[in-house]
Amino acid sequence: MTESEDFEAVYRAAFRGSFTSALRWHHLDELWACLREQAGDDWYVYAVGEAPPRQCASREQLLNFIAGVDRLLREEHQEAYCGIVYADDLRRPGFIKIYDPNNLGVTCGYSDNPPLPGWVLSRLRPCDLRARQQTAGRRRWWRRLFGVAQ
């Protein structure tokens, strides 16, 4: 197995691992608080459908992403519960999946072809999940947030 295949296997295994939902909005607030406390330059921020990042985000970029995606989720997922953010550990996260409120499909339970999350935060370098292309609006949102040239 090559080094590239090895990191991909590790990432995909972690991606398919055990996750817990931030079911209620206050659970999401607690997850963000934990992440802010741990925030350093050791997190990858991956917009699924874009090229996976090769470098970790800066602390400032991570905090900016958390603020931006939190605002997006609350505006577009107008439910009494959250339930679309999953972490490997809600108190000491190392891998977080954030589902796009506009592309939920079946995010919990069993499905042969579950939707991919819109964004993934991880301490592991991500590999391409071979996702559908994001909508133009989501790509613009992502690029504005991360200052990527249009």
Account of the protein in words:
The chain is of the alpha+beta class and 150 residues long. The chain has one domain (3-146). Helices cover 37% and strands 11% of the residues. It is built from four helices and five strands. Strands 1-3-4-5-2 form a five-stranded antiparallel beta sheet, with no helix packed on it. The longest helix has 18 residues, at 59-76. It is globular, with a radius of gyration of 15 Å. The model has no long low-confidence stretch (mean pLDDT 86).
Work out the radius of gyration: 15 Å
The tally of beta strands, per DSSP, is 5
Q: Regions with pLDDT < 50 over 5+ consecutive residues?
A: none
What is the tally of helical segments? 4
Per the principal axes of the C-alpha atoms, what is the gross shape? Answer: globular
| pLDDT averaged residue by residue | 86
Total of domains: 1
Strand order of the largest sheet: 1-3-4-5-2
Oligomer category: single chain
First and last CA, distance:
37 Å
Q: In which range does the helix fraction lie? A: 25-40%
Beta-strand portion reads: 5-15%
What kind of sheet is the major sheet? 5 strands, antiparallel
Order of helices and strands: HEHEHEEEH
Q: Which structural class best describes the helix and strand composition?
A: alpha+beta
